Amino acid sequence: MPKDKTIVVGQSVKRIDALGKVTGETPYPGDIDMDGQLWMKLRFSDRTHARVVAVDTSAALQIPGVVAIFTAADVPVNEYGLVTMDQPVLCGPGSDRPGADVVRCYMDQVAIVVAETEAIAAQAAAAIDITYEDLPAVFDPEEAMADGAPQLHADVPNNVLVHYRTRHGAMDAGWAQAEVIVEGEYTTGYQEHAYLQPEAGLGYIDDAGRVTVVVAGQWTHEDQKLIAHALDLPEDQVRVIYPAIGGAFGGREDMSIQIVLALAAQRLRRPIKAIWSREESILYHHKRHPIKLRTRWGATRDGQIVAQHATVIGDAGAYNYTSTKVLANANLMITGPYVVPNVHIDTYAVCTNNIPCGAFRGFGAPQAAFAAEGMMNKLADALGIDPVELRLRNSIREGSILSVGTPLPPGVSMPGVIEACGRESYWTQTLDQGWMRTPLEQPIDPARRRGVGFACGFKNVGYSFGFPEQSWATVELHGGSEIETVIVRQAGADVGQGAHTVMLQMTAEAVGVPLERVQLLTHDTAETSTAGSASASRLTFMSGNAIRGAAQQALTAWAQEERPAIATYQYRPPKTTPNDPLTGKSEPNFAYGYVAQAVEVEVDIETGLIQVLRVICADDVGHAVNPQLVRGQVEGAVVQALGYAVMEHLVSREGRILNPYLSTYLIPTVFDVPLEVKSVILEYPDPIGPWGARGMAEMPMIPLAPAIAAAVYDATGVWIDDQPFVPDRVVAALRAHGVGVL
Q1: Burial class (CB in 10 A: 0-12, 13-18, 19+), 521
Q2: Which of 113, 112, 89, 111 is nearest to 99 (CA)?
Q3: pLDDT digits (tens, 9 = 90+) for 265-317
Q4: Which of 330, 348, 382, 630 is surrounded by the most beta carbons within 10 Å?
C-alpha cells in the first residue's frame, strides 16, 4: 500500500493536453491521414419535405476519379437516432425501412460520394440528379400541432413527439390566494454550437478486421452502437476512436459522418476521409431548440409564490434527436428553483420541417430559466421587493418538494449560492430591510444607460427521468514492493474541458500515488467499457465514482499480493423515474448543480447595442477537483451564454438556414468578453459525489440571459422577452415604449 498519500484532488494541476494543443502538435480528426485514402462528400437534400423518387448517379460516376456512390439501397439497416430510430441514414428508394424514401429537412443525406480527391467528390455530389415528389411542409410548431397539418412521421400524431403534463396542488385555491399576478410570453432562438473543429473523420479497417472510425464525438460506445446497428454488425466488429476533440457543447451527441464513413470503409476496404466546411457544419448538424414559453405566476403581497401556470412548446425539427429529453428538462425547470405549491404545466416537443434540434449546453434549462427568472424579476418589480430577497423567500431548500411532487435529493445549496452571489456583487444585507442593492453610477453620455440584473438556476447532474445511468472504469496497479505505475481505463470524452486531467487527478487521489505515476487509456472502444456521454454535467461525477470504486478494489487486491492488481468497477447512482403521464410525478434526478449570476450592462438607447460589463457567477461545485479548470468552465460558459443572449441570431426561413457563416452568424470574440467575469466557487459537498464534487459545466450557461434582461430593464424600464437581444430588436422594443425617441 502507498505510504505517503499525495493530495491531488483540489489542486490546479496543469492540463495534460496543454502543450500539444498550444504548439499545434496534437492531432484532431481532420489532421489524420492514411496511405491510399479516398475522400468522401455527401449529397444533402434539396427539399424540406419530399419523396425521393429516383437518384440518378450515372453522370457523377463518369467523372474521372470517382470510385463509388452509395445510396439508401446500400444501407443494411437504414435508420438511426439517439433516443428513437426515426431518421434514415440515407434517404431514397431501395430501402426496406418504411418512410426512408422521404426527406424531411435540408439536413437529410441522400448519397455518399467517394473519390480520389475531395474536389472530385464534391463535383460528383453536385452532379447527382435527384427526382423529388414534393410534399406539404410545416415550419411553425403551433401550426404543426393543428389538425390537418402536414404529418412528418406516421407514428407521431399531430407531430407531437411528447406531451408532458405537470399537475401539482390545487390551482383554483392557488389563484384564489394570489394577490399579485404577472404574465409573460417568452421566445428563444436557435443557437449554433460553433465548435472550433468542424465535423471530420477517417474510416478504415483495422488490423483485427474491425470497421474503425476516427472521429470527434461525445460518447464512443454510443457511436459504436449506432454504427453497428446501421451496418447490421456485432458491436465488437466496430471500433470508434476519438483523437483530440475541438469542442462539442452537445453538438456532437448525434450522428454526422460516423455511419456513412463506416459504411464506405466497409464496402471499399480502403481508408475514407471526410472534412466538412464551416458552412456544411452550420447547415447540417443540429441546433439548440427554439422554444416559446407562456406563463402566469401568482404571489401573495409578502412575496410567497402560490401558483404557476405554463405552456412550453419546443421546435424539435424533423427528427427527435434528444428533443423528448430536452423538453422534459424545460418542463421541470420552467418553475425555476422555487417552492411552488400549485403548478399546472403543459410541455410539447413538436416536429417541423426545420433543422433538427438537440443537445446544447444546458439542455433545455437556459430556455426555461429565461422565462422563469424573467417572471421572478417581474414579480419582484410588481411587489416592490428586492429580487434577491424575493428569491430567498421562495428558494428550494433541503427537503423541498419539486413541481413533480417529490423532494430534491440531499445537498440543496440554492439559498447559499444566491446569498454568495448577492454579497460578491451589488447587494448588501441589513437586519431590518433584508437584501438591498447598492446604487449604480450612470454614464455621463445620456444615450448610454447602465443597469444591474440578477438570476439563478439549477440543473440535473447525470441522466434523468429513468434513463439508465452508469459508468465503468478499470484500474491496474503495477509494481513490486510499491505501486510504480497506475493505468486507468475510462472512456469519458474530453471535448476540451480538461476531463482527462481530472480523471488522472482522481485516480492518483484514489490510489494514493503522485500524479506522474498514472496513465490514462481512453477514447477507444477497443480498450475501454462504456462511460456514458460527455454531457449532462455528469462526467466528473460519474467517472470519479467509477474510478474510485475500481481503485478501492484494486488496492484490496494489491494488499493480497496480486501483481499486477486489476479491478473493473461499474458505478450506478440512485435510480430516477419517468414522469407520470397524467400528473408528471417522478423522481427526476439523483443530483443537481446550483448557480446564481449578477450582471452589469450598458445599453446604448440609440443603437440598441448591449455591452455586458461585469458578470459575477456563483457556482456550487461540491468540491473543486481542479479549481483552475472550474474557473475556465465558468468563463467559457459565461461567454457562450453572452453570445446566446445578445448576438447569436441564426435565421431560418422555411427550413433553410440563411446565415451559415461566421461572418453573418456572429459569436463573441475577445472584444465582446465582459471586463470582468468573477468566479465565486462554492463548495457544499454533494453527499454522493466523488470527494463531494458536483458537475458544473452547464450551470453558468443557464441564468445569464434573464440576468441581462433584468439589467436592461433596470437601465431602460423596458422588458425584452424575445431572445437574442440583437440591436434591431432592442431598438424596436425601446421605441415602442418611447425610450430614445427624439
Answers
A1: middle
A2: 89
A3: 999 999 999 999 999 999 999 999 999 999 999 999 999 999 999 999 999 99
A4: 330
Q: Which of 68, 99, 74 is nearest to 86 (CA)?
A: 99
> Domains in the chain: how many in total?
3
CA distance 445 to 225: 60
pLDDT tens-digit map of 117-138: 999 999 999 999 999 999 999 9
Q: Are residues 674 and 554 in the same domain?
A: no
List pLDDT tens digits, range 2-53: 445 668 999 999 999 999 999 999 999 999 999 999 999 999 999 999 999 9
Could you count the other beta carbons within 10 Å of the beta carbon of residue 381? 16
CA distance 270 to 268: 5
Q: Which residues constitute the domain of residue 552? A: 18-27+470-571
Do both 547 and 658 map to the same domain?
A: no
Residue owning grid cell 498519500: 5
Q: Which of 571, 601, 620 corresponds to the end of one domain? A: 571
Give residue 141's Cα distance to chain centre.
Answer: 21
Backbone angles phi, psi at 681, to 5 degrees: -90, 115
Looking at the DSSP assignment, which residues form a beta bridge with residue 163? 348
> For residue 480, which phi and psi values (nearest 5 degrees)?
-110, -95
Q: Where are the alpha helices (DSSP H) in 532-589?
A: 539-559
CATH code, 567? 3.30.365.10
| Spatial separation of the C-alpha atoms in residues 512 and 506, rounded to whole Å | 10
Domain shared by 603 and 728, yes or no = yes
Which of 55, 47, 35, 63 has its CA nearest to residue 112?
55
Q: What is the mean pLDDT of residues 407-435?
A: 95
- Which has the closest alpha carbon to 274: 289, 295, 259, 292? 259
- Spatial neighbors of 472 by CB under 8 A, at least 6 apart, are 490, 491, 528, 529, 530, 531, 546, 568, 569, 570, 571
2 in a domain, yes or no? Answer: no
What is the C-alpha separation between 201 and 255, in angstroms, rounded? Answer: 12
Assess whether 382 and 503 both reside in one domain.
Answer: no
- 634, 662: one domain: yes
| Residue 728: burial class (beta carbons within 10 Å; 0-12, 13-18, 19+) | exposed
158 DSSP 8-state letter: G
Same domain, residue pair 559 and 587: no
**Closest Cα to residue 499, out of 242, 737, 130, 708?**
242
Sign of CA dihedral 419, 421, 424, 426: negative
Which residue, among 362, 714, 641, 740, has the nearest Cα to 727 in the 3D structure?
740
Report if residue 10 sits inside a domain: no
User: What is the CATH number for 66?
Assistant: 3.90.1170.50
Residues 125, 63 share a domain: yes
Is residue 692 a part of any domain in this protein? yes
- The predicted-structure confidence for 525-538, as pLDDT tens digits, reads as follows 999 999 999 999 99
| Interatomic CA distance for residues 376 and 373, integer angstroms | 5
Question: Angle at the Cα of 98 (from 97 to 103), degrees rounded to 5?
Answer: 95
Q: Which one, of 44, 52, 51, lies nearest residue 135 by Cα?
A: 51
User: In this structure, what are the phi and psi dihedrals at residue 686, rounded to the nearest 5 degrees?
Assistant: -75, 135
Domain assignment present for residue 530? The answer is yes
0.90 surpassed by pTM: yes
